[in-house]
Specification:
This protein is mostly helical and 461 residues long. It has one domain. 82% of the residues lie in helices and 0% in strands.
Length: 461
């Protein structure tokens, strides 16, 4: 099932596209939490801290891979929105070739330099082996991650967010089964958790691929469409690589911050890790609305309907504000209680970790409205093809985290680490709002003001 987001009421389309993705992302975060619960309860606090300490490295590589796939799907959304299906299929073919080549390069580089990177990050000795064992398996599975994200990204570019959700739910359930089997039955520890993640993604990607081959005739290649086209590759890379680089810039900042946090000891690492698990769950709707706006913006740009983009932004921004304020109140008063499931109350560090989690969540939740703005405008600008300018926001986040890591964490300790992300969100969010108004004017100049597609009559449809 495809969805044309260039016709109809913007908010209804955005929510209809977004809700299945929200459900899928929340479910994915829940099974990631199950991973952490099993590790924390059955392997130990040190293992939990070890896996948590490589969260920023995980985001660097997996986020880069995800950014590449999301960027590669934007030209697909634009061509689908314009109705040029032949060009859309040629774009998909060449994007897949690019993604395959990048998967090989990323896997080789990350596996080779994994251990030196963890050493550079000053990973604590009592968690190092756990961290390395987990993340090196994740890196070996990068081709699987890129395959899954390419398949689901193409489906979402065509307006189909329900099919990826369906297969994600199946693979998520299998992931929990694999976790329990690999850890409890086979005693593989954190390696088992990583293997479960990779295997479940492989299953989800395979199901998406089979569905696309059998259920979407619009994706069936015609004669002459499966050809190497360097001009299309260059165009696709011009969108995808800046998005990947933007993810990378942001992730480098979190790695630098994580390095500073590692110097505070395993209790602080565990506190930040547990707090981020809770936070990653509750902010999924904010992030998903942002991702939706990339597809919405891309399709409407392809159809030359810039006025719909503006209206969609206003309505989506209202949704972001309402949700962020509501969930911030919940997290402020009740967030810490969710962390009890990760740890054993008999652990000597238990009370200290819970106190750190409470402090982390009560500070960061106050900045969720700003985070909602950041997600919305960053993804929208990427969907409109302005990936390069969003790198400026990523650079601002990087600089903010560097300043706090080297200027404050080593002096002020845990308090500075807690404020690092909110400061970075605020700086990047302000810049993105400014860039949005500038780039929208550029987009309007590129689109003929006499085009019938710009008529406000869509509001009546």
């Amino acid at each position: 099932m495809t969805r044309d987001m260039t016709k109809g009421k913007p908010l209804a389309l955005i929510l209809a596209f977004c809700l299945p993705m929200v459900c899928g992302n929340i479910f994915q975060q829940l099974y990631n939490m199950v991973d952490s619960i099993i590790v924390g309860q059955y392997v130990g606090v040190k293992a939990f801290a070890g896996v948590g300490s490589v969260g920023s490295v995980y985001f660097l590589v997996i986020g880069t891979a995800t950014g590449i796939c999301a960027g590669f799907s934007i030209p697909v959304a634009q061509r689908f929105g314009s109705g040029d299906l032949k060009a859309m299929r040629r774009t998909i073919y060449n994007a897949n070739l690019l993604a395959g080549a990048l998967a090989v390069v990323l896997t080789a580089v990350t596996v080779i330099f994994c251990k030196p990177l963890l050493q550079l990050m000053k990973t604590t000795p009592d968690t190092f082996d756990y961290a390395y064992s987990y993340i090196v398996v994740i890196f070996m599975g990068i081709p699987v991650t890129i395959f899954y994200n390419m398949m689901s990204g193409i489906l979402r570019a065509l307006g189909d967010s329900k099919t990826p959700l369906k297969y994600l739910l199946i693979s998520s359930a299998l992931n929990v089964v694999f976790d329990l089997a690999f850890i409890l039955l086979f005693g593989l520890g954190v390696v088992g958790t990583a293997l479960a993640t990779v295997l479940s993604q492989a299953i989800s990607g395979a199901m998406c691929y089979i569905y696309m081959k059998r259920g979407l005739p619009v994706l069936g290649y015609e004669k002459g469409e499966k050809q190497l086209d360097f001009s299309l590759m260059k165009e696709t890379a011009a969108v995808g690589l800046p998005m990947a680089l933007q993810f990378s810039i942001t992730a480098v900042g979190t790695i630098i911050l994580q390095t500073a946090v590692n110097s505070l000891g395993s209790v602080a690492v565990a506190g930040i890790s547990a707090g981020q698990k809770v936070q990653n769950l509750v902010i999924q709707p904010l992030e998903t609305v942002g991702v939706t706006m990339a597809t919405y913006g891309g399709q409407n740009l392809g159809a030359k309907r810039i006025d719909r983009v503006r209206l969609g932004v206003r309505e989506a921004l209202a949704v972001q504000m309402i949700y962020s304020v509501a969930i911030a109140a919940v997290v402020f008063f009740f967030g810490e209680y969710m962390t009890h499931i990760f740890l054993k109350s008999s652990d000597p560090e238990y009370l200290a970790i819970v106190a750190d989690v409470r402090h982390f969540l009560r500070v960061t939740c106050l900045f969720y409205p700003i985070l909602g703005v950041l997600f919305l405008f960053r993804n929208l600008l990427q969907g409109l093809g302005f990936s390069v300018v969003t790198m400026l926001a990523g650079a601002i986040e990087l600089v903010s985290r560097i300043i706090i890591s080297f200027g404050f964490v080593y002096r002020l300790g845990f308090d500075a680490a807690v404020f690092a992300s909110p400061v970075a969100w605020s700086a990047a969010g302000v810049l993105l709002i400014f860039l949005y108004f500038i780039e929208m004017r550029k987009a309007e100049r590129k689109v003929s003001v006499k085009s019938p597609a710009l008529s406000p009559s869509y509001c009546k449809s």
